[in-house]
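stage 2 :: seqdesign
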C-alpha cells in the first residue's frame, strides 16, 4: 500500500509518500514562518492563500522525490481537523479531488492522531497501554492509548497550550516567532534557578494543565524590568527563558509520569511540536528510566507538522477497513476520542 499524505491544518504545507506503515519515501514541508513572522503569529487568511499556492507544487515534489506518480498511489490521507478551517479546507478539497480523479480511497485523519503516529512511523511495535503526551501549538493533552485508534483523554489544558505558552513568553522576551525553538536555544545560555517562576498548576489530583499563570509571571517580570518592552539584557532573557522552560517541562514530566504509573503504562510517547524541546526530551527520558518504562519520541523533523505522520495514521485506519466518504469536510474542533466524521467501514485492506 502506497499512500500520499497531505497536511495543511496550520502554517505548514506538507505532502509525503509512505509505503506500508514505516517506509517514508518522501516528506516535503513548505513552512510559512516567513509569511507570519512579522505578525508574531499565524494569520489564518494568509495561511489559506499560501496553502492554495503551494499545495500543488509540494505534492508534485513529494511524488517526484519518492520516484512515483499519482497513478501509482493506492490511497490518500489528509488532515481534516482540528485546525484552521480555511487552511484545512485547501488540503481536504485537494485530497477529495485527487482521490475522485484517481479512483482511490480517501481517509481523513485527526491531526493529533497524526502527531501520535509519528512514533509508530519509526517504531511500529510499541506496546499498549501507552501514555501519550501531546504538546503542540494548540493542544496539550495527556492520553491513555489502549490500542490502535483507541484513546482516553486523561487531562488537557484549561487555558493556553504548551506551545502557545512558549510562543507568548518568547514574544514578551523579544525572541521572535515561532517561540518554542527560540526559548529552547536561549535557555541553553541561562540559569533556571536565577529567576523564581511558579510551577504551572502542579496539582497532584488532576491530569489537567494550566499555563496562563506561568505566562503572566513572565509578562510581569518583563513589565518590571523594561516596562513591557522586549528587554535588552541577553543574560537576563536567557535566565527567564531557562526558568520558564524548566517550570513548564517539570509539570509536563511529573503529570506524564504519574499517569504512566496510574495506568501501568508499557510505554510513554511524546507527540507534537513541543516534543522537539531539548529539555523536555532529556527530562522525560530521565523520568521514564526511573519508572522503568520505555520512552518513544519522534525524531525532530517528525515532531512539528508534517505529512508523513498523517500518512502513517491514515495507513493504520485504512488497514482497519476505515475510509472517508467524499462528504469529508474540514473541522476546526475534532475530538481524538471520537470517530472522524464521514467515516465508512469496508473490509480491512
Ligand atoms: O505541532 P506543531 O508543529 O503545530 C501544531 O499542531 O500546533 O507545534 C507547533 C508548536 C509551536 O508553538 C512551537 O513554538 C512549538 O511547537 N515548538 C517548540 C519547539 N519546537 C517547536 N516548543 C518548544 N521547544 C521547541 N524546540
Ligand atoms: Zn501539529
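stage 2 :: out
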Amino acid at each position: 500500500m502506497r499512500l500520499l499524505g497531505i497536511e495543511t491544518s496550520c502554517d505548514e504545507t506538507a505532502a509525503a509518500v509512505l509505503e506500508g506503515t514505516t517506509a517514508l519515501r518522501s516528506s516535503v514541508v513548505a513552512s510559512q514562518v516567513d509569511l507570519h513572522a512579522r505578525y508574531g503569529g499565524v494569520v489564518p487568511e494568509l495561511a489559506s492563500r499560501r496553502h492554495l499556492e503551494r499545495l500543488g507544487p509540494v505534492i508534485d515534489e513529494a511524488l517526484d522525490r519518492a520516484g512515483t506518480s499519482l497513478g501509482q498511489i493506492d490511497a490518500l490521507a489528509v488532515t481534516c481537523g482540528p485546525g484552521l478551517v480555511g487552511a484545512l479546507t485547501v488540503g481536504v478539497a485537494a485530497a477529495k479531488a485527487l482521490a475522485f480523479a484517481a479512483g482511490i480511497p480517501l481517509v481523513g485523519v485527526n491531526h493529533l492522531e497524526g502527531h501520535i503516529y509519528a512514533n509508530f512511523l519509526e517504531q511500529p511495535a510499541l506496546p499498549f497501554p501507552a501514555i501519550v503526551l501531546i504538546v503542540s501549538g494548540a493542544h496539550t493533552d495527556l492520553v491513555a492509548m489502549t490500542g490502535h485508534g483507541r484513546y482516553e483523554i486523561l487531562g488537557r489544558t484549561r487555558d493556553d497550550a504548551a506551545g502557545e505558552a512558549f510562543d507568548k513568553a518568547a514574544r514578551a522576551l523579544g525572541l521572535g516567532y515561532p517561540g518554542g525553538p527560540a526559548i529552547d536555544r536561549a535557555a541553553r545560555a541561562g540559569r533556571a534557578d536565577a529567576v523564581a517562576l511558579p510551577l504551572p498548576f502542579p496539582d497532584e489530583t488532576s491530569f489537567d494543565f494550566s499555563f496562563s499563570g506561568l505566562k503572566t509571571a513572565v509578562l510581569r517580570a518583563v513589565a518590571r524590568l523594561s516596562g513591557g518592552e522586549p528587554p535588552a539584557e541577553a543574560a537576563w532573557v536567557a535566565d527567564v527563558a531557562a526558568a520558564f522552560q524548566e517550570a513548564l517541562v517539570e509539570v509536563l514530566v511529573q503529570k506524564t509520569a504519574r499517569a504512566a504509573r496510574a495506568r501501568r503504562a508499557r510505554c510513554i510517547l511524546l507527540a507534537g511540536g513541543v516534543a522537539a524541546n531539548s529539555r523536555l526530551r532529556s527530562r522525560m527520558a530521565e523520568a521514564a528510566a526511573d519508572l522503568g518504562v520505555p520512552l518513544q519520541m519522534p525524531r525532530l523533523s517528525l515532531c512539528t507538522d508534517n505529512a508523513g505522520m498523517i500518512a502513517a495514521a491514515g495507513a493504520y485506519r485504512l488497514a482497519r477497513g476505515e475510509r472517508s466518504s467524499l462528504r469529508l469536510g474540514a473541522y476546526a474542533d475534532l475530538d481524538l476520542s471520537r470517530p472522524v466524521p464521514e467515516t465508512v467501514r469496508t473490509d480491512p485492506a
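stage 3 :: structure notes
- The chain is about 45% helix and 20% strand.
- The first strand starts at residue 2 and ends at 7.
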